[in-house]
Write a structure and sequence with these properties.
Length: 131
């Protein structure tokens, strides 16, 4: 789900330059995020599979971290607490781990890296389905 659905919807929403598609693309991304919210409810958290931080958390976390940073910076979007309270608690739990803190890019570095993507004018297919 992360690689095939969630990341695609996140990046497509971020890269969108067509204001008339903004709500639709945000809704698609939020629908993809709902799978993680549901998994956290089912596992009773704080992690995707319960009380232990697993490879699943290590895999998904960087994508969620980039979502939080980039969408706030470029789209003024923050995960709605009423829809994604468990994801927000999961993010806090992950951020509280020294291993995550030590291996994560700073917000500033993430914005610097993504500036190259957001500023580009892609004229090819793939994720560029939002034109």
């Amino acid at each position: 789900h992360c690689d095939n659905v969630f990341v695609k919807t996140q990046f497509t929403f971020l890269m969108n330059k067509n204001d008339t598609k903004e709500d639709e693309l945000r809704a698609e991304m939020e629908n993809a995020l709902a799978a993680y919210e549901d998994a956290l409810v089912e596992s009773k958290g704080p992690y995707l599979f319960g009380t232990d931080f697993t490879l699943a958390d290590a895999h998904v976390f960087p994508f969620m971290q980039r979502l939080v940073i980039t969408l706030k910076h470029w789209k003024n979007y923050e995960l709605p607490k009423d829809k994604f309270s468990n994801i927000l608690l999961w993010l806090d739990s992950c951020f509280g781990r020294s291993s995550v803190e030590e291996s994560s890019m700073t917000d500033e570095k993430t914005i610097e890296v993504y500036t190259r993507f957001v500023g580009a004018d892609y004229k090819f297919g793939g994720l560029n389905t939002n034109k």
